[in-house]
């Protein structure tokens, strides 16, 4: 968090009004016209930097003239003026480029690129301030230059970089650090501007700086003859290779080890950037990047470095014909499996996936197969990463993965509990507040039950199946249902289900054959023990998408008839899952017909009829079970309509449903009944029954009304040339057009 003083400054920067900002800007422009930049100019530059950086809204001050003035101040050699002014100028210049890249001209780009090359490649290699030779009469003349050192304490044998250390730094060494910090951003900005003059810079320094010859760049002395843009890339390339070489040294301080990692991340990103701009550098870069991956891949503390390496492989591996399998095994295998509880890695890896989604889908088959592993990030910290998975989930839905992905999402609360058990099983035992050890932890450690938990912890799709033992798994993890992390995870499942089914519908609409076998089995059974409100949310989402899927693919009802009938034939579902039960019954009555699927047989229609008939008879002939409310009227009317529809397709069933409907009318004449206490609801149910009974008296009419042909349900009369409506529409259009023309002429 910021200190109170820092927060106050940031608030002032955000609250500054446009008029005040323009006045401040004009004063700064006058200060920058002087030969030297004094303290007031430096303070004003810092303030402008804060103003531009402290708000997410784009400011409307014209920065082109300021940019030109700042760049002109860079034209003089560092020895001609105070370098501290350059240290203030470069950050504000970088901020201006971020906000207004259009204010840069080609001359500006060339100038700044040359200066960055100088600062990166030709900084001093001696420590700032020098070292004393000792003695009482020590003075400035007695101080001897001391070379900079590497992080392992040895003397630097090459040009200065951010990984060189000393007792102090010279001004040009600070500019080296500043230049490296903005190098990647500058390369991306420069890349978007066309190449300029190809004339070499005659004033560029030699490749040999003093008596030290650059080992990295000794083979590229011809780079002086390159155009400014290409020369900047070459120097950036050399600088990054030097950093990678320095990172292999054993740092004496722990903080320097972290600095090495940070510099490696930036170096690999810059190498990726220059290779994107100039593909000829790919072949020079890959041996170094490949060796770096081999050196770091076994140590997951370098995960933040390995992700940029994976980006490099993704962007350039195909061109260099390099085998990337080991990279993807690490990224999609070990990273989620072992570092799922690292917030930083979760953010970085999911960001990597979102930025490269299209490339991963096309070129990395391991991506879609790794969803059981990737979902561990969601199971562990749902609030932090749910937005990422909202974007990623549709890309994980394929014809082969749809069903397993659905089951995995429904098992996310189980996975969340299992991850907690996995971490704690190697540490102190989990216990409840009262001190009693948890049965779930004992089960996790049990060899006989280990397979269930290993299935949840699998790293890729298609490895094992526990659907038949879900009830056992739920019993083992029942005590974890109220753990905060598990509850948070369960709350995200309805959102994910909505996205999942929307993606499945898109595949179905586009003609992709999705394997639906088992798709309805798990959602229709009781999910992991969670609060009733969350369970109802799951059922609502599933109910909504069930109807949409059946409409897109009516044959789905025949495919899944066993699961649907098993659910619809269970009377208890009428009371506990009324909404989804209503939708399932409606789908059976609507789509279980030959017109929807030629495989629909009389036998299947009869078995469905008998299952629904038994449920309807049971709920209308007795009171609700203890503790349950009366059946929802919509459930009863939907059951009656479904029976009538099925009977209209198999006329042998008409007497049975007609008999039930006539008895229903007789029973309700006596007043209220035990299964419906509301008089208005009872009247509506009886009226619906009489309508259906009247229809079934004439089977031909009943079939036309209850199962209308497609041309009736989806009319296109405005296109049918055999009807008069198209002619009427054309006539009205012509008359309207003529009337408009006459109005214009008048």
From TrEMBL:
It comes from the Eukaryota. InterPro entries: AP5Z1 (IPR028222), AP5Z1_ARM (IPR055450), TPR_AP5Z1_C (IPR056856), TPR_AP5Z1_N (IPR056857). Residues 59-218 form the AP-5 complex subunit zeta-1 N-terminal TPR domain. Residues 259-376 form the AP-5 complex subunit zeta-1 ARM repeats domain. GO terms for cellular component: AP-5 adaptor complex. It holds the Pfam family SPG48. Residues 388-735 form the AP-5 complex subunit zeta-1 C-terminal TPR domain. This is Adaptor related protein complex 5 subunit zeta 1.
